[in-house]
Amino acid sequence: xxxxxxxxxxxxxxxxxxxxxxxxxxxxxxxxxxxxxxxxxxxxxxxxxxxxxxxxxxxxxxxxxxxxxxxxxxxxxxxxxxxxxxxxxxxxxxxxxxxxxxxxxxxxxxxxxxxxxxxxxxxxxxxxxxxxxxxxxxxxxxxxxxxxxxxxxxxxxxxxxxxxxxxxxxxxxxxxxxxxxxxxxxxxxxxxxxxxxxxxxxxxxxxxxxxxxxxxxxxxxxxxxxxxxxxxxxxxxxxxxxxxxxxxxxxxxxxxxxxxxxxxxxxxxxxxxxxxxxxxxxxxxxxxxxxxxxxxxxxxxxxxxxxxxxxxxxxxxxxxxxxxxxxxxxxxxxxxxxxxxxxxxxxxxxxxxx
Length: 354
What we know:
Elements: H1 6-16, E1 20-24, H2 28-41, E2 45-50, H3 51-57, H4 59-72, E3 78-85, H5 88-96, E4 101-104, H6 118-133, E5 138-143, H7 168-178, E6 182-185, H8 213-224, E7 232-234, H9 242-250, H10 263-271, E8 274-279, H11 281-297, H12 304-326, H13 340-353
Parallel strand pairs: 1-2, 1-8, 2-3, 3-4, 4-5, 5-6, 6-7, 7-8
């Protein structure tokens, strides 16, 4: 089965009222675990690739690993998505590589650190949409700015600083001017394992305070403007399970006060229009915990297969749990997939009708 388009996957998720996990990949074991979980649960899935991943694994290696995964799991409805593209040129490179979806993060300038103004965001995002839709490729845009830094990308702002949150009144204008297919919203989530600056009196970390009401406002505003069931995206949505943190620390780790987004908050968003949920940190943590445990309990081992096999198995279990929690399990064959050519023709028809 060839790769499918993210627009179709998210539109079908909107019809079914569920979310779809977008899981970051950097190596073969991660791709294997995610695809195996998707096949086992008959779930659509989004394989998400950051610029950091492309640099680490090399563009050609990672592309070939994903090609192998689609050959090994031909029945899985899989999207390959560029996460946080920093420029139209980066997005075009991903399209040339065969990605079926790209994110143009115009909330930041090309350095991936400096917050950009609204006019710049609209300009570069619209430029990517024009290029992408001519190829049938889905485009995700971002309005507002997220806290934290991941793979060298991010402004490092306090996630609870509401001055950088998505302005609900601006969402309709942004979607209309850019023509994006889905919108990443800033509601107080953050990249990384430390998503909060809130602590109780004993110094224990508390979950981040999210502006969940903005999801409702943005969805309502878009629907009133004719964008019914428009897909929203939650970045920085790892839950950072405390049992995994405890296991990392038990076997020599030093993760203090790591805290993520509670699953009930994510599910609240799904019930109100969030269709794509980005998860990276949880996968890193569960693989690290497995590797630490194996090497701690068996210091005589030196074959990477011994600990990477355990890491892959732990990640598969985690991904399966996420897929059930997001509601995507069992929806892999609800529809016939539309490839890039079919979506390209659909975009052309929509443009002609405007």
